[in-house]
Design goal:
By secondary structure, this protein is mainly alpha-helical. The protein is built from nine helices and no strands.
Length: about 170
């Protein structure tokens, strides 16, 4: 399905929820707009049968144990110990502050934070972010999960699809 850049960016803001630590009180499902995308529906279906504690444990095992499955973009771009990570995070933080956003305690390069606040970036900035950060990082994240058995691989594939929408246009 073809979407406009604006529609895809709106869906990416919704998709950010898939990559946030599962809160025990979350009882609602993903928005219908996301459930219509097969990969996100499959993601939610796979996690749907788990208790909140099981979802939290699965999230931690998936993303917090090893750097290669990290959701921090700078880790995939520069490695764990590199001063360029700080530069990238400062750039993200600057965009969020400029837009008047408080992104809370999460580091500014966390994928869910970047997706949720993608409207802090103008079209040119977003295009560069896609080209330089998301396009190289998302496939690496998907590969690091190793299989379709992990529901988060489905969410990341759905996000990659939205990022790539627009036939050469950056979403």
């Amino acid at each position: 399905m073809s979407r406009t850049v604006s529609e895809a960016r709106s869906l990416l803001r919704l998709a950010a929820e898939c990559l946030e630590y599962p809160r025990a009180e979350r009882t609602h499902t993903l928005p219908e707009a996301l459930r219509r995308i097969e990969l996100f529906a499959a993601f939610e279906d796979r996690l749907g049968g788990l208790t909140p504690e099981m979802r939290q444990e699965h999230y931690v095992r998936t993303f917090d144990v090893t750097p290669k499955t990290s959701l921090y973009l700078s880790v995939h771009l520069f490695g764990e110990e590199n001063f360029k990570r700080a530069e990238l995070m400062a750039g993200f933080r600057s965009a969020y502050v400029r837009a008047g956003r408080d992104v809370g305690p999460e580091l500014p390069d966390h994928l869910s934070t970047v997706l949720r606040h993608n409207d802090c970036f103008d079209e040119e900035e977003w295009g560069e972010l896609v080209r330089l950060c998301l396009s190289p990082s998302l496939p690496a994240m998907i590969r690091s999960l190793g299989s379709d058995e992990n529901p988060y691989a489905l969410a990341l594939e759905g996000i990659l699809g939205l990022v790539g929408q627009g036939e050469g246009a950056h979403v």
